[in-house]
Amino acid sequence: MTLQVPYVGYLSLGDDPHLVANECETCGALFFDRRNACASCGGRNFASRRLANSGVLRAFTIVHRASPGVAVPYVSGIVDLDGGGVVKANVVGVDPEPSSLTLGMRLQLTTFAVGTDAEGTEAIAFGYQPA
Ligand SMILES: [Zn+2]
Predict the structure, then answer these.
(1) Strand 18-24 and strand 11-12: pairing?
(2) 27/42 Cα distance (integer angstroms)
(3) Is the peptide bond before 73 cis (omega within 30 degrees of 0)?
(4) Are 33 and 101 in contact (CB under 8 A)?
(5) Among 24, 106, 111, 116, which one is most buried in terms of CB atoms within 10 A?
(6) Cα 35-41-45 angle, rounded to 5 deg
(7) What average pLDDT does this structure show over 68-72?
(8) 6: which strand partners?
(9) What are phi and psi of 99, to 5 degrees?
(10) Looking at residues 73-92, what average pLDDT do you find?
(11) 69 has pLDDT over 80
(12) Is the pTM of the predicted complex or chain greater than 0.90?
């Protein structure tokens, strides 16, 4: 079996890939990655919370210029996850054309390999595809 590592720390892999946020124990605000304090209320205690793999497209842009080696065009979206949480991620599995996307369309988390090191370990990223 190929060893896999998540591209970002808040992506949990395994049989059921999903995102994990840090939830402020005082006000419920959600953040990715570690925080010293809540940007909403200043609270300092957080608990891990699994986020839904489904949501809706809030906003998107089609990117036509990127760093060397990054294929363009691609769709960068803002996704409102069911049950809470907002994440910026690429929308995949659609033509990168405005006519292919609709605000509010249902999306589902997907994962894919973005690179492999010399030992065969795969880096796994996530995006959202039409549900
Ligand atoms: Zn808070």
Answers:
(1) antiparallel
(2) 9
(3) yes
(4) no
(5) 24
(6) 45
(7) 92
(8) 124
(9) -70, -15
(10) 97
(11) yes
(12) yes
Contact 5, 122 (CB under 8 A): yes
Residue from 47, 54, 56, 53 nearest 17 by CA: 53
- In angstroms, rounded to a whole number, what is the distance separating the alpha carbons of residues 103 and 128? 14
Neighbours of ion ligand 1 (CB under 5 A): 24, 26-27, 29, 38, 40-41, 43
> Distance from the CA of 34 to the center of ligand 1, in angstroms?
13
pLDDT tens string 97-112: 999 999 999 999 999 9
Mean pLDDT of 80-96: 97
Task: Give me the half-sphere count of Cα atoms (radius 13 Å) on the Cβ side of residue 3.
Answer: 6
Q: What are the tens digits of pLDDT across the range 5-50?
A: 999 999 999 999 999 999 999 999 999 999 999 999 999 999 999 9
C-alpha 49 to ligand 1 mean position (Å): 14
Q: What pLDDT sits at residue 2?
A: 82
Residue 119 in tokens: 């030992």
